[in-house]
Amino acid sequence: MALNAEESGRLAALLGGHAEQVTARWTEIVTGSLRGRLSQAELRRQVQDLHRAIVASGEQGAIDLSAENSAELRAALSELSRGRARQGFSATETTISVFALKDVLAELLQDGGGANALHDYIAFSKLVDELGLFTFESFVRTRESLIADQAEQLLELSTPVVKLWEGVVAVPLVGTLDSARAQVVMERLLQTLVDTGSPYAIIDITGVPAVDTQVAQHILKTVVAARLMGADCIISGIRPQIAQTIVALGIEFGDIATKASLADALRHVLRLTGVETARRQPRRDI
Amino acid sequence: MTAGVDLGHPQAQAIQSDEDVVRVRQLVRAVAVAVKLSLVDQTKVVTAASELARNTLVYGGGGSVEVTTVDNGRRMGVRIVFADSGPGIADLDLAFTDGYTTGGGLGLGLSGARRLVDEFEIETSAEAGTRITVTKWSR
After folding, report:
1. Is the Cβ pair A248, B25 closer than 8 Å?
2. Strand partners, B65
């Protein structure tokens, strides 16, 4: 609900005329709601920025959040909610910083609002509602972009390629293997094969909850790509329920070696490369 | 993982993106655990749901899924209904042939899903889209 030019002028005059009192009271109310998690000085600065932006757009005529002349106000609100979202404040703690203005206005109008006090309060409070909603929306947008960033970081995190032995690398897959992750896995694996000159790669799917045809296809493609580069792939971590599901689905892994556990796969590779593993005889007491 | 599944009430989920396919899997797994399916049967029904949900998304252009628990007096089970309003399947026999695909997949999803569940019904037409109902009973 936008204010008309007359109301905006009165709001600007009211807030501008009592600048010191308004910001002090506003800061005081917000401080209580944030339970000391933000310094007084920081808070005062934010409140002053908002105050200045509201007064400035009020002096330019009708305050309308979607209009051109409210760009500064929108920026101030966005900055406030971005900061709060990144510092881990809740949506309530963020929007209350704006809604606190209502209390301030109520007190001001009570003291000396004149004949129009009630009418003005209703109009101003509609504007504050709008400012609050805008703040809330930018808060949510910031949170969403944080989540998207984290999802991207997770993608990087969850696909390590580790060296198990001289000439043997392993990819432990954990979680859902969608197309995006399969692509990352394949790139990482192929690059590591080149970098380490390893002739063997083990793809471990112990941590993949469901192996459907899409997952199988991604794994098969990765194996074929590794083979083209001259490396042999072994798939490990095939649990009983996964084995039965793969059979029922009709997926064939052809001549690709598959093992129940990563240990079996490593033993298989070591045998192929001629590394002797022997259990040391326990020493007998004479 | 969906905690505290409300048994007896159908659980609905839209299928509009790859993330929704993951949600369908989690929902089906939660219901399968709730009706005490064995680990092998849980994995089978989750995998079948994953295949059919992806078909709904890729070939049906998105749709919805409904998961319910069923009880025939002796055994409990999971029933999943996939519905889309896509172009339908022109030749069902061909679609159920192992290795046949019009996309880029392995061509095993539809036929494999039928082998993974106990009951499988399909209704398809060019006008009304495709509706697949599958049921997995506990042993």
Report:
1. no
2. B13, B82
Chain A residues with CB inside 8 Å of B96's CB?
none
- For B39, the closest of A176, A241, A251 (CB atoms) is A241
Q: Where are the domains of chain A?
A: 5-155, 162-273
Angstrom CA distances, B30 to A265, A272, B1, stand at 32, 42, 7
pTM surpassing 0.95? no
Judge whether A266 is closer than 8 Å to chain B, CB to CB: no
Reported as a single tens digit per residue, the pLDDT across B109-118 is 899 999 999 9
For the segment B90-131, what is each residue's pLDDT rounded down to a tens digit? 888 999 998 888 888 888 989 999 999 999 999 999 888 999
Per CATH, which fold does A162-273 belong to? Transcription Regulator spoIIAA (3.30.750)
Q: Residue B79 in contact with residue B70, Cβ under 8 Å?
A: yes
Task: Give the domain range for residue B103.
Answer: 11-137
Tokens 């005889």 correspond to what residue? A281
**Predicted-complex ipTM score:** 0.84
Residue B37 lies in a domain: yes
Query: Which chain B residues have a beta carbon less than 8 Å from that of A210?
Result: 25, 43, 46-47, 50
